[in-house]
Structures are given as C-alpha cells and as structure tokens.
Amino acid sequence: MALAIEVAELGLSALDGLDVDALAVFVGPERPLQGFAGFADWRLCGAISRAIRTGLFQADAGEALLLPSGGRVSPGRVFCFGLAEVPLSPEAFLSAARTLCEALARAGSEAFATSMPPLAGNDAPLAARLWLEASLVRPVRRQIVLGEARALQRDLAAARAALGVEVDVLAPPSRVEMPPRGRGLPHVGGVVR
Questions:
Q1: Omega into 32 within 30° of 0, i.e. cis?
Q2: What is the reported pTM?
Q3: Which of 40, 70, 88, 174 has the most CB within a 10 Å radius?
Q4: What is the pLDDT of residues 131-141, one digit of tens each?
C-alpha cells in the first residue's frame, strides 16, 4: 500500500477544510488544551475537555478515547490519545506515533488528520523520521499532518530520503483567489481623476 502524507498549516481553517474520515488527537497534560487538541476541542464544543473533566478520559500515556464528531467537523470519528508528559523523549514519541497509526489502521481508516506531538529538544528532523518509521508499520493510505507546513514538508522529505522509502510527501495546494471585480471599478491600468 502506498502511503501519502500531506502537510497543512495548523489552524481552524485547515480543520474545517479536512476531507478525511478521522481525526487523531494527541492530548497532553496541559489545561486548557493546546495546539491541535485545542482546535479540535473548540470545534467539538468542548467534548474532549468534558471527557477529561468527568473522568471518562484521563489523557494518560497509553490511554485512548473514541468520540463521535456529531457533525461538528467533517470527519465522523475523533480518536484521542493520551500523553503523560510533553515534550516526549524519542522513545516515547515513537511509541505514541506507533500507537496512533496502528489504532487508525485497525479502525479501518482510509485517511486521517493529526499533528505530531512535541519532541524533546524540538528536533523536527528527528520527529519527522520517527513519524515515518511509525507510519510505515501499518500504513493508512493517506495522512494529513498539521503544523508548520513548509517545515513539515522539508523534514518529511528529508526523512523519506534518509530512510529510502517510497512515501509521497505532498504540500498543500497554493491557491490565490482574486476578489470579484466591482462593476463601478475602472479597468486594470485605468487612471482615476
């Protein structure tokens, strides 16, 4: 199975435009929730925070929770994976990434969106390599990794080359949309006096 990893900027607009069947959210010990977990919780009207507050989900390492999105985001399923501490050591990062990728593969996901957890030392190239290693154990056809898109694309492409694996690393399409011209505006290059 060919693996395609798309990268996109982390934000509410990216979350709203996802065309995947699942969200995979790492939930760390910080409260209120930060990063992708915070954006997902916002769109889910606080469902992740409520699960934590009521004790349904402790967000401990190795703990997972499946929530329905209730139509608040286009993916129907939201998988939450607990992290005991952040940032993670390389071993803990690899374990968390494998847990996420294997769970999504077992759940029959064809495409999911996520954001990598923070790695100790902010070593982005190492995080990209570990992410690829984890993703290749039981690959899901398509992933969208949210974060700083240009840096993610660069680091994932370098990790792909270093590991010598065939993985498509795709940048988000760049779109430039021009606003509609008003009827009363002069033609381009016209002089207004």
A1: yes
A2: 0.87
A3: 40
A4: 999 999 999 99
